[in-house]
Specification:
By secondary structure, the protein is α/β, with parallel strands linked by helices. Helices cover 39% and strands 21% of the residues. It is built from 11 helices and 12 strands. The strands form 3 sheets. It has a 5-stranded mixed β-sheet with strand order 4-3-5-12-6. Strands 9-8-10-7-11 form a 5-stranded mixed β-sheet. It has a two-stranded antiparallel ribbon with strand order 1-2. It starts with 7 loop residues before the first helix and ends in a 7-residue tail after the last helix.
């Protein structure tokens, strides 16, 4: 099969297949039969002269060539979609997918309002949300998502990323209502005597409060905060806090939602421990900057969040 004979639909299926790394999951997500997805994989293996997906003890993994193909396919499909959307963009009739990456607190606090507007104005648009902990800007760079929500700032090497300020950040202490500090005035000195849970989304080894303690002279190599619990996401934090003496330092909207569980309370972070990274941005890559659908999505964020004291 030559490039001139390649069916573009095969690339759409292969893109999803390389993302899912699973034939039946791909079939389900695309509303196709497993046999159709398997035939596509067979054709694509022949076209690229590579296995693309190989079986391991833990399922299927991409070959090195497949990793490259995955990025290239995303670029090709994005270019085709951009050409199509340049002709016309009518929110009421568009049926494309817009994809977002963000961590759970930002997704939970910011996306419901956006999705509500999308459902009203573009009812056929599909919204895809990914909150898997990973490098915040890699999916943008690879072309796997259209937007990312993050309080982090890209490195100077990532110059092709645009941003829009959409919210502020505030943090609270989440703990059991039976915690010894539940009804006490909390100072940095008093707080350091208790134990914390760390939500390490990108493999961080140091609690976010640690450097503030070092600035105050209350921690050093010999006097470190006690962090006996390490999590890779936010999901388990509320139950752990409710049933133990562990304190979590988390975004305030997340802490507030968690307190729907009557076993939990939130307490203010002592002023001297307030963190500096206090903004959340909407990010997008320059490849989508002129795309009408993505420009329309940005307009929704501007309508909802620009120049407003929104906390996420």
């Amino acid at each position: 099969m030559g490039a001139s004979q390649l069916d573009l639909n095969l690339l759409f299926v292969l893109k999803r297949l390389l993302e899912e790394k699973h034939v039946s999951n791909t079939a389900l997500s695309l509303n196709m039969s497993q046999s159709s997805v398997s035939r596509t994989l067979h054709k694509m293996r022949a076209f690229f002269d590579d296995e693309l997906l190989v079986r391991t003890n833990y399922g299927y993994e991409l070959t090195p060539k497949a990793e490259t193909v995955k990025q290239d396919i995303s670029a090709v499909i994005n270019s085709v979609e951009k050409l199509v959307h340049k002709q016309t963009f009518d929110p009421k009739s568009v049926n494309s997918t817009v994809s977002f990456y963000g961590l759970q607190p930002q997704i939970n606090s910011l996306m419901p309002n956006v999705i509500e507007l999308i459902r009203k104005r573009a009812p056929n648009m599909v919204v895809s949300l990914d909150s898997t902990p990973k490098r915040h800007f890699q999916a943008l760079i690879d072309g796997d998502v259209h937007f990312a929500l993050s309080s982090h700032r890209p490195s100077s090497a990532e110059q092709n990323i645009h941003s829009m300020l959409i919210a502020k950040r505030n943090f609270s202490l989440l703990m059991s209502k039976n915690h010894p500090l539940a009804n006490q005035d909390i100072s940095a000195e008093k707080l350091r005597e208790y134990q914390f849970g760390q939500i390490s989304l990108q493999g961080e080894k140091t609690l976010s409060l640690e450097y503030k303690y070092k600035e105050l002279g209350l921690a050093d190599k010999k006097r470190q905060l006690s962090v006996p619990i390490q999590l890779s996401n936010f999901g388990a934090a509320p139950n752990i806090a409710a049933q133990t003496d562990i304190i979590f330092h988390v975004p305030t909207p997340f802490a507030t939602d968690a307190c729907n569980d009557s076993r939990l309370i939130t307490r203010d972070v002592p002023p001297e421990l307030k963190l500096h990274f206090i903004h959340v941005y909407l990010y997008w890559h320059k490849r989508f900057h002129d795309d009408p659908a993505c420009a329309w999505i940005r307009s929704l964020f501007k309508e909802l969040y620009a120049d407003k004291d929104i906390y996420a």
